[in-house]
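Researcher: We are triaging several targets before committing to wet-lab work. For this one, the compound of interest is zinc ion. I'm pasting the protein sequence and the ligand SMILES. What I need is the predicted three-dimensional arrangement of the protein with the ligand bound, expressed as structure tokens, so it can go straight into our comparison scripts without reformatting.
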Amino acid sequence: LVESFVLNSEDREVSRKGKGRSPDPSFKRNGELVQQLFLLSKQSGRKVKDIDLNLLTSHFANYVKVVNLILSRIYMTDKRAQSLGKALSEYRGRAYTLLRKEKDLCYQHNNDFKELLYERLHRNALEHAGRTLHADYTRRALFTSAIKVLTDSSDDVLNLLRRKRIPSDLIRRVRDSCEFVKNNGSGYHYTLGVLRQVCLALDLYLLDSIGLKIGWRGRQRKKVSSLLKEDSPDCQQVKALIEKDLRKWKSKGYPFTVPQLRSYSLDFSASTENATGQGYWFTLDPDRENEILLHLKLPPGIDGTHPDASPYRGKTLTFRFLDWLPRAASEGSEKVKRAEEIEDFPRAERLRFRAAMFEDMHTQLRNTIELQHLTHRLTKLRQKRESDEEETAVLETRVKELKTARRSAPPRLLLRDGRVILQVPFLSPNGEVSTKILGAREYDNRAGVDRGLRVPVVLSVQKKQEYTDLLLRVEHLIAKRECLRKHAYQLQSITDRKKNNWERKRKGLSYPGYILKKERHITALWRKVRRLDREVARVIASKTVWFCEEHRVKTLFFEDLRSFQGHAGSKDLSYNLSSNLWGNIIDTVRYMREALGHSKYSVWTVNPRYTSQTCHACGERGIRVEDESSTKKKKGGEYFYCRECEEHFHADVNAARNIIHVHPGPSVVSGRTA
Ligand SMILES: [Zn+2]
């Protein structure tokens, strides 16, 4: 559970919700004034001043440099990367404790590290590099086993390269042949991603060796699959080329690139929170309500300012941010009252939980800050010769209390498009918070969730012999997404044409500003599409979870990921959930259920085979029909008709109800125990 806070320069007025957000309408007609304001805001109106931004950028640069230096030393030889990666994957402690045993990675023996960072920050850099190495190690292992599977069977190679989608049975076989990947939803996705990379590598190699240059990924794919068609004259030759390449990769190893940290970020995750030496220090602003100052310790060679409250003296860079959690909590409580007035009790409950969650996060952050300060004072007191024993004792008990209290974890800093973002990981509200809000409850129903045809998701809850259904609609988001996508495609084709023109006329010259601007626009559009996808997943997951909460669902069954070709008739839909999004939804539901205090085994995925063809009441095969009165078979029809029961059901609802019964039922499923 990570929440973000936007950092501001220390002397900036933090913009708060409801205060001076929208501009004065009279500005609209006054072009000159707008221009002036624009210039002004360019100089001073940004959240972070240029001078602070420069300091922070060089701080980040040092950190990134060290992480990449560590990585380049680890990857000096493949053998070293392999052995360290293996050691890491078997190691149970923090990555830095393992890596600092290596002489060329540790802080003591390397002056180049000492010039760039102070020691505690180097520890974070080691941890960061360790995590990157671990991820890369599994990826390489998976890549290698994929190559192995592919060299063993030329049919698989053809299937992979001819088809538009990556065959799911290939994904599963590759996943199962690699010992590092777990047999679960995320392992499947990971393997899918790696196979896409293999596919890309093969395509590029092939196009390169026959001397074709195609820039666009979609066209590359089309060209390769057309070359490999059975009636294509080059098929045999191309096949031989690819197999030669695969054999080479298998015997000599695939030429992997060394992973690098590219984003500008600073990670304190290997720190503890209670000493100043860690490099970050929070203080509450005494004058402004709910505003917190963050002091960062600058590495050697960079000088900063010297605020009074900072323990780093002249080596400080200070930011401020608004702790918006209490406001969110109190706003939530207001909404609870309104929902109770109109007697929408499920909504009230949902909002109450949200408010309590924000309240809890606020407490966690405050506890962290208090602990930071008290331990600092305690060490100072102990160093004094004549310390006040009474005060020490009081402090000690409070510190002990805080150490067992709920606290947030060390933060992460990100620099994105000129905005500095502080990410703070919080403890999930399961257990304490959820029990307080929801109380002791009996959960004994089951629910099935299916990817629908007419709506993205269909949910059905079974209570004894009765069913309650929910068709989840997110049309407004999907319409928005489609609109953005169309816009992006249009812009892409216009830009491509312009680029072609430019290349014809001025070969070898780099693109001019107006084309680059269009390209930035396109990437921004795709970023928005992806954000909307995440939004869709979140909205669907939240609606699912709270519907289940309302109907006291103990166990949820989802259609699993193997059928990601889409259902019959899904073609004429403008939108159907991709398997990626579906996996995302399942993960979010699992997470949210855990946050509500359910067991992590309360969400299952099952094989959806035949669920759309059998009747949920009697189990006989039925047919799909056009509407609720028709009995004539129509492929991909909206309704389901069972001849035995002589009844019509909504096809998606029928499938969702079937999904509840596919699974024989887990032997032990622990629900919430209050
Ligand atoms: Zn039936």
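Researcher: Any quick observations?
Model: The chain has three domains: 76-257, 276-425, 443-662.
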